[in-house]
Amino acid sequence: MLERGSEDFFDDINYILTACSERGLSKLLAVRTIYQQAKDSQFTKTVLKDQPKALEDNRQELYHKLTEAEDEKQQLTERLKTTEEERQQLKDTLKTTEEERQQLTGRLKTMDEERQQFKDALKTTEEERQQFEDALRETDRDFRNTLNTAENKLKTLKDEKEELL
């Protein structure tokens, strides 16, 4: 109803504006401007009246989001701490494993050196065995030759003895 009254008022003012003289026109324009400002002021009051509630709602929503963000930050900080502890444990485990690998590599190298020494000793022993076998064969051959020679002499001596008897 107020709006309808306002429209009628504006229509009346527009009618009066056209009918008025130049002097009255300026007064009428001043009245119209004041009325428009009053009407704008009422609209502004309505908007401003609702604005604190909207601002409070917005503030509450932002506060809620901030709380959620802080909670998430705390969770992420705890996860980061846990991850860092796990990383440190894995780093320590890796260091221990590397030390063990170096020890095993050292033992393997030592065992390879010992194996090579045994291999060299075995080769030397095999060479000595071969030399002993060769010496044994030669001694056996010499012994057989000596034995054959002795048997032949013995046979010759027996034959000579029989001839003499």
From TrEMBL:
Residue ranges with Basic and acidic residues bias: 69-102, 109-144
Region annotation (Disordered) ranges: 69-144
The name this protein goes by in its record: Uncharacterized protein
Taxon lineage: Eukaryota, Metazoa, Echinodermata, Eleutherozoa, Echinozoa
